[in-house]
Amino acid sequence: MVESEAPHSGRMADVIPPVPRVSIHVFCESPSLSGMVEGAVADRRMQNAKVKSRMGGVRGALAAYREEQAPDVIVLEVGGDSATFLADLDGLAEFCDDSTRVVVMGRINDITLYRALMARGVSEYLVEPFHALEFVRAISELYTKPGGGVLGRIIGVYGAKGGVGASTVAHHLSWSIATKLDTSVVLVDLDLPFGTAGLDLNQDPLQGIAEAVFSPERLDSNMLDRLMTKCADRLSLLAAPATLNREYDFNEDAFDGVMGLLRGSAPIVVLDIPHVWTAWARRLLLNVDEIVLVAEPDLANLRNAKNFLDLAGPARTNDAKAKLVMNRVGVPKRPEIPLKEFTTAINVTASAVIPFDPKLFGMAANNGQMVAEIPGGAKLGEIILNLGRTLTGRPEMQAAKKTSLIESLKSTKLPFSFAKTT
Protein backbone atom coordinates (compact mmCIF):
# COMPACT_ATOMS: atom_id res chain seq x y z
CA MET A 1 0.00 0.00 0.00
CA VAL A 2 1.30 3.49 -0.86
CA GLU A 3 0.32 5.99 1.83
CA SER A 4 -0.84 9.43 0.84
CA GLU A 5 1.13 12.52 1.84
CA ALA A 6 0.76 13.51 5.46
CA PRO A 7 -2.35 15.68 5.77
CA HIS A 8 -0.51 18.53 7.50
CA SER A 9 1.98 19.03 4.68
CA GLY A 10 1.67 22.56 3.35
CA ARG A 11 -1.54 23.39 5.18
CA MET A 12 -3.10 23.20 8.59
CA ALA A 13 -4.75 19.88 9.45
CA ASP A 14 -8.43 19.86 10.33
CA VAL A 15 -9.48 19.50 13.94
CA ILE A 16 -9.97 15.87 14.92
CA PRO A 17 -11.36 15.27 18.43
CA PRO A 18 -9.58 12.68 20.58
CA VAL A 19 -11.00 9.17 20.43
CA PRO A 20 -12.82 8.39 23.70
CA ARG A 21 -12.03 5.54 26.08
CA VAL A 22 -13.25 2.69 23.90
CA SER A 23 -11.91 -0.75 23.03
CA ILE A 24 -10.91 -1.29 19.39
CA HIS A 25 -9.93 -4.60 17.76
CA VAL A 26 -8.29 -4.50 14.33
CA PHE A 27 -8.07 -7.56 12.06
CA CYS A 28 -5.81 -7.04 9.04
CA GLU A 29 -5.06 -9.19 6.03
CA SER A 30 -1.93 -7.40 4.74
CA PRO A 31 1.27 -6.39 6.59
CA SER A 32 1.20 -2.94 4.93
CA LEU A 33 -2.21 -2.11 6.37
CA SER A 34 -1.19 -3.53 9.72
CA GLY A 35 1.78 -1.14 9.72
CA MET A 36 -0.47 1.80 8.90
CA VAL A 37 -2.71 0.89 11.85
CA GLU A 38 0.30 0.78 14.17
CA GLY A 39 1.15 4.31 13.07
CA ALA A 40 -2.41 5.45 13.69
CA VAL A 41 -2.50 3.90 17.16
CA ALA A 42 0.60 5.93 18.07
CA ASP A 43 -1.21 9.18 17.24
CA ARG A 44 -1.90 11.44 20.23
CA ARG A 45 -5.64 11.37 19.58
CA MET A 46 -5.77 7.61 20.16
CA GLN A 47 -4.14 7.60 23.59
CA ASN A 48 -7.37 6.96 25.50
CA ALA A 49 -8.47 4.02 23.34
CA LYS A 50 -7.44 0.44 24.05
CA VAL A 51 -6.40 -1.00 20.69
CA LYS A 52 -5.53 -4.60 19.88
CA SER A 53 -4.30 -5.33 16.36
CA ARG A 54 -3.81 -8.78 14.82
CA MET A 55 -3.79 -10.53 11.48
CA GLY A 56 -6.54 -12.78 10.14
CA GLY A 57 -9.22 -10.47 8.75
CA VAL A 58 -12.87 -11.28 9.25
CA ARG A 59 -12.13 -14.99 9.71
CA GLY A 60 -9.80 -14.08 12.54
CA ALA A 61 -12.55 -11.99 14.12
CA LEU A 62 -15.01 -14.89 13.86
CA ALA A 63 -12.59 -17.19 15.63
CA ALA A 64 -11.78 -14.61 18.31
CA TYR A 65 -15.35 -13.74 19.30
CA ARG A 66 -16.36 -17.33 19.75
CA GLU A 67 -14.08 -17.18 22.79
CA GLU A 68 -14.11 -13.53 23.91
CA GLN A 69 -16.34 -10.48 24.25
CA ALA A 70 -16.64 -8.20 21.21
CA PRO A 71 -15.17 -4.69 21.70
CA ASP A 72 -16.76 -1.30 21.10
CA VAL A 73 -15.25 -1.06 17.61
CA ILE A 74 -14.18 -3.79 15.17
CA VAL A 75 -11.96 -2.84 12.21
CA LEU A 76 -11.75 -5.38 9.36
CA GLU A 77 -9.76 -5.54 6.14
CA VAL A 78 -11.36 -6.94 2.99
CA GLY A 79 -8.68 -9.30 1.79
CA GLY A 80 -10.13 -11.38 -1.03
CA ASP A 81 -13.50 -12.13 -2.57
CA SER A 82 -16.19 -9.61 -1.63
CA ALA A 83 -19.01 -12.17 -1.54
CA THR A 84 -17.08 -14.38 0.87
CA PHE A 85 -16.26 -11.38 3.05
CA LEU A 86 -19.93 -10.35 3.22
CA ALA A 87 -21.00 -13.88 4.16
CA ASP A 88 -18.42 -13.97 6.95
CA LEU A 89 -19.53 -10.50 8.07
CA ASP A 90 -23.10 -11.79 8.41
CA GLY A 91 -21.79 -14.58 10.60
CA LEU A 92 -19.80 -12.14 12.73
CA ALA A 93 -22.97 -10.20 13.55
CA GLU A 94 -24.17 -13.12 15.68
CA PHE A 95 -21.31 -12.53 18.13
CA CYS A 96 -21.68 -8.74 18.44
CA ASP A 97 -23.94 -6.43 20.40
CA ASP A 98 -26.16 -3.96 18.56
CA SER A 99 -23.92 -1.18 19.88
CA THR A 100 -20.76 -2.63 18.32
CA ARG A 101 -19.48 -0.47 15.48
CA VAL A 102 -17.64 -1.83 12.47
CA VAL A 103 -15.18 -0.09 10.16
CA VAL A 104 -14.09 -1.88 6.98
CA MET A 105 -10.90 -1.16 5.04
CA GLY A 106 -10.09 -2.38 1.54
CA ARG A 107 -8.73 -1.70 -1.93
CA ILE A 108 -12.03 -2.29 -3.74
CA ASN A 109 -13.59 1.02 -4.83
CA ASP A 110 -16.90 -0.58 -5.74
CA ILE A 111 -20.33 0.91 -5.18
CA THR A 112 -22.01 -2.49 -4.94
CA LEU A 113 -19.74 -3.52 -2.08
CA TYR A 114 -20.19 -0.16 -0.39
CA ARG A 115 -23.99 -0.43 -0.49
CA ALA A 116 -23.86 -4.00 0.79
CA LEU A 117 -21.73 -2.90 3.74
CA MET A 118 -24.00 0.02 4.58
CA ALA A 119 -27.06 -2.23 4.39
CA ARG A 120 -25.44 -4.39 7.08
CA GLY A 121 -24.97 -1.40 9.36
CA VAL A 122 -21.22 -0.93 8.83
CA SER A 123 -20.26 2.54 10.08
CA GLU A 124 -17.49 3.36 7.61
CA TYR A 125 -15.66 1.97 4.58
CA LEU A 126 -12.13 3.29 3.98
CA VAL A 127 -10.70 2.78 0.51
CA GLU A 128 -6.92 2.49 0.19
CA PRO A 129 -4.60 4.26 -0.04
CA PHE A 130 -5.17 6.43 3.00
CA HIS A 131 -2.97 7.98 5.64
CA ALA A 132 -2.89 7.02 9.33
CA LEU A 133 -4.61 10.29 10.25
CA GLU A 134 -7.56 9.42 8.02
CA PHE A 135 -7.94 6.20 9.99
CA VAL A 136 -7.89 8.20 13.25
CA ARG A 137 -10.48 10.58 11.83
CA ALA A 138 -12.79 7.70 10.88
CA ILE A 139 -12.66 6.26 14.41
CA SER A 140 -13.11 9.69 16.01
CA GLU A 141 -16.13 10.49 13.85
CA LEU A 142 -17.90 7.38 15.12
CA TYR A 143 -18.28 9.29 18.39
CA THR A 144 -18.74 12.83 17.09
CA LYS A 145 -22.33 13.99 17.03
CA PRO A 146 -23.48 14.90 13.52
CA GLY A 147 -24.28 18.60 13.34
CA GLY A 148 -22.81 19.00 16.80
CA GLY A 149 -21.89 22.63 16.25
CA VAL A 150 -18.51 24.24 16.80
CA LEU A 151 -15.41 22.08 17.04
CA GLY A 152 -12.73 24.35 18.42
CA ARG A 153 -9.02 24.35 17.62
CA ILE A 154 -6.88 24.35 20.78
CA ILE A 155 -3.64 26.35 20.63
CA GLY A 156 -1.07 25.91 23.39
CA VAL A 157 1.39 28.76 24.01
CA TYR A 158 4.52 27.76 25.92
CA GLY A 159 7.85 29.37 26.71
CA ALA A 160 11.13 27.65 25.88
CA LYS A 161 12.43 29.30 29.06
CA GLY A 162 10.78 31.05 31.97
CA GLY A 163 10.24 34.77 31.54
CA VAL A 164 10.42 34.90 27.73
CA GLY A 165 6.99 36.52 27.39
CA ALA A 166 4.90 33.48 26.45
CA SER A 167 1.96 34.72 28.50
CA THR A 168 2.14 38.14 26.86
CA VAL A 169 2.10 36.46 23.44
CA ALA A 170 -0.85 34.25 24.43
CA HIS A 171 -2.91 37.20 25.69
CA HIS A 172 -2.16 39.47 22.73
CA LEU A 173 -2.72 36.61 20.28
CA SER A 174 -6.14 35.82 21.78
CA TRP A 175 -7.19 39.47 21.68
CA SER A 176 -6.00 39.91 18.07
CA ILE A 177 -7.85 36.84 16.79
CA ALA A 178 -11.03 37.88 18.59
CA THR A 179 -11.08 41.58 17.73
CA LYS A 180 -9.28 41.74 14.38
CA LEU A 181 -10.28 38.44 12.81
CA ASP A 182 -13.85 38.37 14.20
CA THR A 183 -13.42 34.86 15.60
CA SER A 184 -14.68 33.82 19.02
CA VAL A 185 -11.82 32.93 21.35
CA VAL A 186 -11.55 31.51 24.86
CA LEU A 187 -8.27 32.31 26.63
CA VAL A 188 -7.41 29.88 29.44
CA ASP A 189 -4.81 31.02 31.99
CA LEU A 190 -3.25 27.82 33.34
CA ASP A 191 -0.67 29.54 35.55
CA LEU A 192 -2.98 29.11 38.52
CA PRO A 193 -0.82 30.68 41.28
CA PHE A 194 0.68 33.55 39.27
CA GLY A 195 -1.46 34.07 36.14
CA THR A 196 -1.61 37.56 34.64
CA ALA A 197 -4.30 37.27 31.96
CA GLY A 198 -6.83 39.08 34.15
CA LEU A 199 -4.41 41.97 34.68
CA ASP A 200 -3.46 42.21 31.00
CA LEU A 201 -7.12 42.30 29.95
CA ASN A 202 -8.16 44.65 32.79
CA GLN A 203 -10.41 42.08 34.43
CA ASP A 204 -10.81 40.95 38.04
CA PRO A 205 -12.88 37.75 37.83
CA LEU A 206 -13.98 36.02 41.01
CA GLN A 207 -13.82 32.53 39.51
CA GLY A 208 -12.26 30.69 36.60
CA ILE A 209 -10.24 27.62 35.70
CA ALA A 210 -9.63 26.54 39.31
CA GLU A 211 -13.34 25.95 39.97
CA ALA A 212 -13.52 23.84 36.81
CA VAL A 213 -10.55 21.60 37.54
CA PHE A 214 -11.18 21.17 41.27
CA SER A 215 -14.85 20.19 40.77
CA PRO A 216 -14.83 17.74 37.85
CA GLU A 217 -17.95 15.98 39.12
CA ARG A 218 -20.00 19.17 38.67
CA LEU A 219 -18.41 20.34 35.43
CA ASP A 220 -20.61 20.70 32.37
CA SER A 221 -20.99 23.22 29.56
CA ASN A 222 -23.33 25.43 31.61
CA MET A 223 -20.94 25.58 34.54
CA LEU A 224 -18.01 26.29 32.21
CA ASP A 225 -19.94 29.16 30.62
CA ARG A 226 -20.63 30.67 34.06
CA LEU A 227 -16.93 30.51 34.96
CA MET A 228 -15.88 32.54 31.92
CA THR A 229 -15.41 36.30 31.99
CA LYS A 230 -16.38 38.25 28.88
CA CYS A 231 -13.54 40.61 27.92
CA ALA A 232 -14.75 41.70 24.47
CA ASP A 233 -17.51 40.83 22.03
CA ARG A 234 -15.68 37.69 20.91
CA LEU A 235 -13.15 37.15 23.70
CA SER A 236 -13.81 35.22 26.89
CA LEU A 237 -11.37 34.48 29.70
CA LEU A 238 -11.11 31.44 31.93
CA ALA A 239 -8.90 33.10 34.50
CA ALA A 240 -6.37 31.77 36.99
CA PRO A 241 -7.07 32.48 40.67
CA ALA A 242 -3.54 33.96 41.09
CA THR A 243 -3.52 33.17 44.81
CA LEU A 244 -1.13 31.14 46.94
CA ASN A 245 -3.58 29.85 49.55
CA ARG A 246 -3.66 26.32 48.10
CA GLU A 247 -1.42 23.91 46.23
CA TYR A 248 -1.98 23.29 42.54
CA ASP A 249 -0.84 19.71 42.08
CA PHE A 250 -2.85 17.81 39.46
CA ASN A 251 -3.05 14.34 38.03
CA GLU A 252 -1.92 13.85 34.44
CA ASP A 253 -5.47 13.78 33.08
CA ALA A 254 -6.90 16.47 35.37
CA PHE A 255 -7.67 18.85 32.47
CA ASP A 256 -9.09 16.28 30.02
CA GLY A 257 -12.72 17.04 30.88
CA VAL A 258 -12.22 20.79 30.67
CA MET A 259 -10.49 20.50 27.28
CA GLY A 260 -13.32 18.38 25.91
CA LEU A 261 -15.88 21.01 26.88
CA LEU A 262 -13.73 23.89 25.64
CA ARG A 263 -13.66 22.37 22.14
CA GLY A 264 -17.39 22.96 21.98
CA SER A 265 -17.30 26.47 23.43
CA ALA A 266 -15.51 28.49 20.70
CA PRO A 267 -13.73 28.07 17.36
CA ILE A 268 -10.39 28.99 18.95
CA VAL A 269 -9.15 28.12 22.44
CA VAL A 270 -5.78 29.54 23.52
CA LEU A 271 -4.01 27.93 26.48
CA ASP A 272 -1.49 30.04 28.37
CA ILE A 273 0.64 27.18 29.72
CA PRO A 274 3.19 28.10 32.41
CA HIS A 275 6.85 27.14 32.11
CA VAL A 276 6.63 23.96 34.20
CA TRP A 277 7.28 20.36 33.26
CA THR A 278 4.69 18.27 35.06
CA ALA A 279 2.66 15.32 33.84
CA TRP A 280 -0.43 17.48 33.22
CA ALA A 281 1.52 20.22 31.40
CA ARG A 282 3.27 17.67 29.19
CA ARG A 283 -0.04 15.98 28.37
CA LEU A 284 -1.68 19.30 27.48
CA LEU A 285 1.18 20.43 25.28
CA LEU A 286 1.46 17.21 23.32
CA ASN A 287 -2.30 17.02 22.74
CA VAL A 288 -3.19 20.52 21.56
CA ASP A 289 -3.92 21.10 17.88
CA GLU A 290 -1.22 23.76 17.50
CA ILE A 291 1.84 24.58 19.64
CA VAL A 292 3.26 28.08 19.79
CA LEU A 293 6.77 27.96 21.24
CA VAL A 294 8.06 31.34 22.45
CA ALA A 295 11.81 31.86 22.76
CA GLU A 296 14.46 34.54 23.06
CA PRO A 297 17.68 34.43 20.99
CA ASP A 298 20.11 33.01 23.57
CA LEU A 299 21.79 29.68 24.23
CA ALA A 300 19.49 28.46 27.01
CA ASN A 301 16.42 29.09 24.85
CA LEU A 302 18.08 27.33 21.93
CA ARG A 303 18.87 24.26 24.01
CA ASN A 304 15.40 24.10 25.55
CA ALA A 305 13.62 24.66 22.25
CA LYS A 306 15.60 21.87 20.62
CA ASN A 307 14.92 19.49 23.51
CA PHE A 308 11.22 20.25 23.36
CA LEU A 309 10.97 19.84 19.58
CA ASP A 310 12.93 16.58 19.75
CA LEU A 311 10.37 15.30 22.25
CA ALA A 312 7.28 16.64 20.50
CA GLY A 313 8.21 15.46 17.00
CA PRO A 314 7.88 11.68 17.57
CA ALA A 315 4.83 12.21 19.81
CA ARG A 316 3.02 14.31 17.17
CA THR A 317 3.90 12.57 13.92
CA ASN A 318 0.60 13.53 12.27
CA ASP A 319 0.69 17.18 13.34
CA ALA A 320 2.41 20.30 12.05
CA LYS A 321 5.60 21.41 13.78
CA ALA A 322 5.38 23.94 16.57
CA LYS A 323 5.12 27.57 15.48
CA LEU A 324 8.20 29.43 16.72
CA VAL A 325 7.86 32.99 18.02
CA MET A 326 11.13 34.83 18.62
CA ASN A 327 10.42 37.43 21.27
CA ARG A 328 12.40 40.43 22.57
CA VAL A 329 14.77 40.43 19.65
CA GLY A 330 17.29 43.28 19.60
CA VAL A 331 17.88 43.99 23.30
CA PRO A 332 20.57 46.74 23.42
CA LYS A 333 24.07 45.50 24.31
CA ARG A 334 22.85 41.91 24.75
CA PRO A 335 24.76 39.31 22.70
CA GLU A 336 22.17 37.38 20.70
CA ILE A 337 22.21 34.30 18.52
CA PRO A 338 21.34 35.47 14.99
CA LEU A 339 17.84 34.48 13.91
CA LYS A 340 19.03 32.37 10.97
CA GLU A 341 21.45 30.41 13.15
CA PHE A 342 18.80 29.86 15.82
CA THR A 343 16.14 28.58 13.41
CA THR A 344 18.63 26.47 11.44
CA ALA A 345 19.79 24.75 14.63
CA ILE A 346 16.28 23.65 15.56
CA ASN A 347 15.04 23.20 11.97
CA VAL A 348 11.99 25.44 12.44
CA THR A 349 11.23 28.72 10.65
CA ALA A 350 10.13 31.59 12.87
CA SER A 351 6.42 32.34 12.41
CA ALA A 352 6.81 35.70 14.15
CA VAL A 353 9.72 37.89 15.26
CA ILE A 354 8.77 40.43 17.94
CA PRO A 355 11.31 43.22 18.56
CA PHE A 356 12.30 44.36 22.03
CA ASP A 357 10.12 47.33 22.97
CA PRO A 358 9.79 47.61 26.77
CA LYS A 359 8.13 51.01 26.64
CA LEU A 360 5.13 49.95 24.53
CA PHE A 361 4.64 46.55 26.14
CA GLY A 362 5.16 47.98 29.61
CA MET A 363 2.65 50.74 29.00
CA ALA A 364 0.11 48.23 27.68
CA ALA A 365 0.58 45.93 30.69
CA ASN A 366 0.26 48.74 33.23
CA ASN A 367 -2.90 50.06 31.53
CA GLY A 368 -4.56 46.66 31.15
CA GLN A 369 -4.52 47.10 27.38
CA MET A 370 -3.09 45.34 24.35
CA VAL A 371 -0.08 46.83 22.58
CA ALA A 372 -2.13 47.45 19.43
CA GLU A 373 -4.33 49.81 21.48
CA ILE A 374 -1.34 51.92 22.55
CA PRO A 375 -0.25 54.88 20.37
CA GLY A 376 2.71 53.68 18.32
CA GLY A 377 1.91 49.98 18.84
CA ALA A 378 0.32 49.30 15.44
CA LYS A 379 3.39 47.58 13.96
CA LEU A 380 3.78 45.28 16.95
CA GLY A 381 0.08 44.54 16.83
CA GLU A 382 0.34 43.62 13.15
CA ILE A 383 3.11 41.10 13.86
CA ILE A 384 0.92 39.32 16.39
CA LEU A 385 -2.11 39.58 14.11
CA ASN A 386 -0.19 37.88 11.30
CA LEU A 387 0.63 35.04 13.71
CA GLY A 388 -3.09 34.82 14.45
CA ARG A 389 -3.85 34.62 10.72
CA THR A 390 -1.50 31.66 10.44
CA LEU A 391 -2.93 29.86 13.45
CA THR A 392 -6.57 30.33 12.52
CA GLY A 393 -5.93 28.20 9.46
CA ARG A 394 -6.70 30.35 6.49
CA PRO A 395 -6.49 27.38 4.08
CA GLU A 396 -4.48 27.56 0.91
CA MET A 397 -6.53 27.27 -2.23
CA GLN A 398 -5.85 23.87 -3.66
CA ALA A 399 -6.88 22.32 -6.94
CA ALA A 400 -10.12 20.42 -6.66
CA LYS A 401 -9.58 16.71 -6.48
CA LYS A 402 -11.70 14.02 -8.03
CA THR A 403 -14.09 12.44 -5.62
CA SER A 404 -15.08 8.85 -6.03
CA LEU A 405 -18.72 7.87 -6.07
CA ILE A 406 -18.22 6.20 -2.72
CA GLU A 407 -16.82 9.41 -1.22
CA SER A 408 -19.79 11.34 -2.60
CA LEU A 409 -22.21 8.96 -0.94
CA LYS A 410 -20.32 9.20 2.32
CA SER A 411 -20.95 12.92 2.45
CA THR A 412 -24.69 12.29 2.65
CA LYS A 413 -24.91 9.21 4.85
CA LEU A 414 -25.55 9.18 8.58
CA PRO A 415 -23.47 7.14 11.03
CA PHE A 416 -24.71 3.59 11.61
CA SER A 417 -24.28 1.01 14.32
CA PHE A 418 -23.49 -2.59 13.49
CA ALA A 419 -26.90 -4.24 13.35
CA LYS A 420 -27.42 -7.99 13.36
CA THR A 421 -28.72 -9.43 10.13
CA THR A 422 -31.20 -12.22 9.82
List descriptors.
single chain; 422 residues; alpha/beta; Rossmann fold; 2 domains; 8-stranded mixed beta sheet; 5-stranded parallel beta sheet; 16 helices; 13 strands; 36% helix; elongated; disordered N terminus
The structure class reads alpha/beta
The number of distinct structural domains comes to 2
Count of DSSP-assigned helices: 16
CATH architecture of the largest domain: 3-Layer(aba) Sandwich
Main β-sheet, spatial strand arrangement: 8-9-7-10-6-11-12-13
CATH class of the largest domain: Alpha Beta
Largest sheet: 8 strands, mixed
3D architecture notes:
- The chain is α/β, with parallel strands linked by helices.
- The chain folds into 2 domains: 23-144 and 400-410, Rossmann fold (3-Layer(aba) Sandwich); 153-391, 3-Layer(aba) Sandwich (Rossmann fold).
- 36% of the residues lie in helices and 17% in strands.
- It contains 16 helices and 13 strands.
- The protein has helices at residues 31-41, 57-65, 82-92, 111-119, 132-141, 166-180, 197-200, 209-214, 221-227, 256-263, 279-287, 299-315, 339-346, 358-367, 378-391, 405-410, and strands spanning 23-28, 50-55, 73-77, 101-106, 124-127, 153-159, 185-189, 229-232, 235-238, 268-272, 290-295, 323-329, 350-355.
- An 8-stranded mixed beta sheet has the order 8-9-7-10-6-11-12-13, with helices on both faces. A 5-stranded parallel beta sheet has the order 2-1-3-4-5, with helices on both faces.
- Helix 2 (57-65) runs parallel beside helix 3.
- The model is unreliable at 1-13, 395-402 and 412-417 (pLDDT under 50).
